Amino acid sequence: MNETKRTRVGSAEIASLIRRDIKSGELSPKERLPPERVLAENYQVARGTVREALNKLAEESLVEIRAGSGTYVTFDPSESADNVILSARPLELIDARFALEPHICRLAVLHARPNDLEEMESLLQTMENSVNDPAMFSSADTAFHSVLAETTNNNLLIWIVSQINSVRSQKEWSKMRRVILNPDTINLYNQQHRAIFTAISQREPELAAASMKEHLESARLSLTRSAST
Amino acid sequence: MNETKRTRVGSAEIASLIRRDIKSGELSPKERLPPERVLAENYQVARGTVREALNKLAEESLVEIRAGSGTYVTFDPSESADNVILSARPLELIDARFALEPHICRLAVLHARPNDLEEMESLLQTMENSVNDPAMFSSADTAFHSVLAETTNNNLLIWIVSQINSVRSQKEWSKMRRVILNPDTINLYNQQHRAIFTAISQREPELAAASMKEHLESARLSLTRSAST
DNA sequence: CCCAATTGGCTTAGTATTGGATTTAAAAGA
DNA sequence: TCTTTTAAATCCAATACTAAGCCAATTGGG
Fold first, then answer.
1. In the prediction, which pLDDT does B82 show?
2. Of residues B78 and B212, which shows the higher confidence score?
3. Do residues B75 and B62 touch, judged by C-beta distance below 8 A?
4. B87 and chain A: CB distance < 8 Å anywhere?
5. Does B163 reach chain A within 8 Å, measured CB to CB?
6. Cβ contact B10 with chain D strand, < 7 A
């Protein structure tokens, strides 16, 4: 199938190329594509082929074709953001945190300053005093993970984590917290948070990352257990 | 030699240019744009075309047009959510990718289906044929990392990666790409991409993650090297 | 306070560009 | 061979752009 690469360039291939540029943001919303005749020239195909490709993209609502005017990008990758965040499922969230937070711990070890550590210590104490107050624990927990991100001094990571945290403050999630956050679980989490904090203050990046992984593993376990009941 | 028939520069193009300058902060809030007649001269179009472009921007609330006075920027990028993304610095981006992409590789190993692998293979071939075409390489490279994210089936991760990719399509970055992406570097990246792909097809999560880390390490090196020159 | 200069608002007629659609021929694939 | 797809060349219809002029609102200097 892919052996004969050179000869056959069909409308499907053209469509894929353009689709990729739109979805990756290389072509921004409202932007006008070059005229069909020029695209045909660029891709070295006939105009009819380009036309077919553009019509496919129009059916996918990626572009809008206006006769006499041009073809315009109508897909905004950043607009689908709210939907993604609102509809994120618990296990998706845990996987995303698995990707992010261990490495955040490593970076936190590199960048942590005394007042970062003080803030973490203060939040740890709040959580340790909230064994019977799930709501309080939960807000301090979120803050703790935010501080970890802020400690990296990486605005991109800080922003990503804040986006992820906004998922957790959804309505549906607070229900779930009430089920999961019993005193035993809170105690477990407190121990794990403490382990992460200790690893960071002792400047041990891999230990910090490993502790975070263990913590997230527990969180995943809590989730699957609560889902099965 | 005048075979090059310029494609029409229309109101959509003018609007895109000005919109980009506004959103990137090149034009500050409250600042007055040059008069329509001057803009028309600068862009080498008729005044009516400039007018249409400005009216579009006014509908998007990016500018305010006051008859007899002028056209004023009414959009403040620092108050926009996209701000973090627009102002992300190269090393921040690499750190974020260090956090995300190795784990994405692990998840990709778990979820990869035959047509995911086919798509990766096709992009690898595109990149391998683009040793002397940085723009094409870059677009396929972005797509490759996007496909990795899509393979996880995790919408949250897919969205995060797409946000990160949108950073890379910024103006400043395309300059940097031209400096970094010489044939040697592209060949190196191609080898590394191939290694990642092989690890995924052979279902070796840790090998895939390690290959990705190596790839990102190279990317970081290219960045620091280009920054120091 | 008024006048003159500047700036956006708007109209018109003529021209150019662009997508829409059809036809014929050639090439690729079943 | 027959079917489908692509190429190439037209012509058409919709839309946008140019150019030029005049009006209306605003601004700032005298």
1. 67
2. B212
3. yes
4. yes
5. yes
6. yes
Looking at the domain covering A81-228, what would its CATH class be? mainly alpha
Could you check whether B11-78 and B83-228 share the same CATH topology?
A: no
Each domain of chain B, given as residue ranges in start order, spans 11-78, 83-228
Q: Does domain B83-228 have CATH number 3.40.50.720?
A: no
Contact between chains at B99 and A95 (C-beta distance less than 8 A):
no
User: Which of A21, A70, A102 is facing B12, going by the closest CB pair?
Assistant: A70
- The CATH T-level fold of domain B11-78 is Arc Repressor Mutant, subunit A (1.10.10)
> pLDDT by residue (tens digit) across B3-34?
455 788 999 999 999 999 998 889 999 999 99
Q: Which of A122, A124, A116 is nearest to A147 (CA)?
A: A116
Structure tokens belonging to residue A195:
């382990």
- Please give the DSSP secondary-structure letter assigned to residue B35: P
Spatial separation of the C-alpha atoms in residues A21 and A12, rounded to whole Å: 14
For residue range B160-181, list pLDDT tens digits in order. Answer: 888 888 776 666 677 778 788 8
Instruction: Answer whether any strand C atom is within 7 A of the Cβ of B42.
Output: no
- Asked whether strand D has any atom less than 7 Å from the CB of B8, the reply is yes
Dihedral of alpha carbons B76, B155, B157, B122, sign:
negative
